[in-house]
Specification:
The chain has helices at 9-27, 42-53, 81-90, 110-123, 160-165, 185-189, 204-212, 245-253, and strands spanning 2-6, 32-35, 63-66, 68-70, 100-101, 129-132, 154-157, 179-182, 193-198, 230-235. By secondary structure, the chain is of the alpha/beta class. The strands form two sheets. Strands 1-10-9-6-2-3-5 form a seven-stranded parallel sheet, sandwiched between helices. The chain has a three-stranded antiparallel sheet with strand order 4-8-7. It binds 2-amino-2-deoxy-6-O-phosphono-alpha-D-glucopyranose. Residues 36-40, 67-68, 133-135, 141-142, 162, 166 line the site of 2-amino-2-deoxy-6-O-phosphono-alpha-D-glucopyranose (GLP).
């Protein structure tokens, strides 16, 4: 696990975007991205959009798979992850909407929709690089505490804490769906590389648990400690509870080839 501590959120985004652009340049124009919703990856998407609009990155033939979707919200709902991915990923990154996939939270058979989503990821050749945020309770995707570390895409029940965290996107708590479809921890772990971004003091506990805590379903993101190619990009506040922060800074300072200066 590599931990990169950046001065601010904007540099977090630029560092993550550089990692992603490097993967695309290595894997080719039809690379497969795993994309996350939430506030955390917004600066990453903005930095990627900058690379695209200045002609340094072309994602028009790339594929993307979103991590999750609320059950019951149609693609037209402004807070459905279909809409969020359209606004923050497809449009600014000039991606082909036909190559960007989001689980179908309105399917009549949700279990079947989850199975088909797994097949679609496999048919695309698997995810080359997965972008992740982390919930305040340590979830990744919508894999809430107690998720099996081997789980695949499935229906999950959101915790009250996650619903309260996401309430800001809805008119009231009652409007926040109770269920979602989410890629499983096993699905996420199949990605060839993962980059998790987190900023702000409210993420410090979750980041410490993911990076330095025991690997436990109680903090689902901690499973990334088993991933052979995981990069955690955080700002100073999100890094504030990391016991080994000085070591991570030293590793970066003496790294022969730094991706982006924090
Ligand atoms: C949501 C998403 C996650 C995201 C997390 C953190 O619940 N399903 O993919 O990482 O919340 O969100 P934010 O980045 O807004 O803090």
């Amino acid at each position: 696990m590599e931990v990169v501590i950046c001065d601010d959120n904007e540099r977090v985004g630029r560092t993550a975007a550089t990692l992603i652009a490097e993967v695309v340049s290595r894997r080719g124009p039809a690379s497969v991205l795993g994309v996350a919703t939430g506030s955390s990856p917004l600066t990453t998407y903005a930095a990627l959009a900058d690379l695209v609009t200045t002609g340094r990155l072309d994602l028009s033939r790339a594929h993307a798979f979103a991590l999750d979707e609320y059950v019951g919200l149609g693609a037209g709902h402004p807070q459905s992850y279909h809409s969020v991915i359209r606004r923050h990923v497809i449009e600014p990154l000039r991606m082909d909407p036909g190559r960007v996939h989001v689980p179908d939270g309105t399917a009549s058979d949700l279990d079947q929709a989850c199975l088909e989503y797994e097949h679609a990821i496999a048919d695309a050749g698997g995810v080359d690089i997965q972008i992740l945020g982390v919930g305040t309770n340590g979830h990744i995707g919508f894999n809430e505490p107690s998720s099996s570390l081997a789980s695949r895409t499935r229906v999950k029940t959101l915790t009250q804490r996650t619903r309260e965290d996401n309430r800001r996107f809805f008119d009231s708590l009652d409007d926040v769906p109770t269920h979602c479809l989410t890629q499983g921890l096993g699905t996420i772990m199949d990605a060839r590389a993962v980059v998790l971004v987190a900023t702000g003091a409210h993420k410090a506990d979750a980041v410490a648990a993911v990076v330095e805590g025991p690997v436990t379903a109680r903090r689902p993101g901690s499973v990334l400690q088993f991933h052979p190619n995981a990069t955690i990009v955080v700002d100073e506040e999100a890094a504030s509870r990391l016991e080994l922060a000085d070591y991570y800074r030293h590793v970066w300072a003496v790294k022969p080839r730094q991706t982006v200066a924090p």
